[in-house]
Amino acid sequence: MKVTLKVYRFNPEADIEPHYDTFKVEAEPNERILDCLNKIRWQQDSTLSFRMSCAHGICGSDGLTINSQSALACQKLVEDYDYTKEILIEPLKYFDVLKDLIVDLTPFFERVKSVNPKTPSSPANVEPEKERLQSIEERSRFDDALKCILCGCCYGACPVMVEQDQEFIGPAAILREQRYIFDSRTADAQERLQVMQKPHGVWACKSYYMCTVVCPKNIKVTEAILRTKKKIIKEQQPKVE
Ligand code: SF4
Ligand code: FES
Question: What's the pTM value of the predicted model, to 2 decimals?
Answer without folding.
Answer: 0.91
